[in-house]
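User
New here, help please:
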Amino acid sequence: MTAQAEGAAAAEGRAAATALLLASGLAWGGTVVAGKISVSTGHSPLGLVFWQLAISVAALGGIMLLRRRRLPMTREALKFYAVIAAIGTLAPNSASLAASAHLPAGVLAILLATVPMFAIAVAAPLGADRAAPRRIAGVGLGAAAVALILGPEASLPSPEAWPWVLIALFAPLCYGAEGTFVKLRMPPGLDPFAALAGASLMGMLILAPVVAAAPGVWVPFPGPFGAAEQAMLVSGLLHAGAYTGYVAMVGMGGPIFASMVSYVVTGSGVLWGMLVLGERHSLWIWAALAAMVAGMALVQPRR
């Protein structure tokens, strides 16, 4: 292959990776809006999480069949699936969906961007990551963004909504802890795609008896297929597609390139909320978004 052909192939690869990054980020941002719509008719967050997991299992299981890949079922892998299911899906998704009924989707997207800040806070004391001064400053900017959302009276729909901001922050805290756990305890030979499929299946099995027995938790599906149910289906498909895209991005451009998707997720979550839900934000929220983006830029690992 000539140097010119190699350059053209490299340019095509970069263009494909960038397109995939944008598509995955837009899909992930869309799950924030879909989640808010899915709780609009009073569906239980636990019931919605169960069906999100079931949809993910169906989508990811189908892809694994096409790839002719088997899900590792060793004792070590099963323990890993259980922990990831708990701190990567059950707890954070339930908190996010509960907060979705009380907070704008744009605010939820900005709060979700604190994942790398929480990841540094959890990983650094355990020796799983390095807390350089630049990254500590990024964590500080993330905290300032949260303060801008919590503090001014004009930032939230109502002053009584501030406890739901704290509940929404529980989700990125879980995701930050999940990242550290994956880095320290991921079984050898288990790729991220299989880890998500196994964790989704484990979470579904854990949640099934709760959803079946607890009153008011079960969400009939298939059943009435209104906007909330449609959003629930879309959310599950978007989540599976976005994560599959993320795994592909890691292979195409490396983990540092793939981590840039967080900017697209945050920005698209705010924009989707404005386009689909008609949300409009105060200057305090826009200032919080600017502070959060700056914080993410400082927290991101350098190549």
About this structure: The mean pLDDT is 82. The chain is about 80% helix and 0% strand.
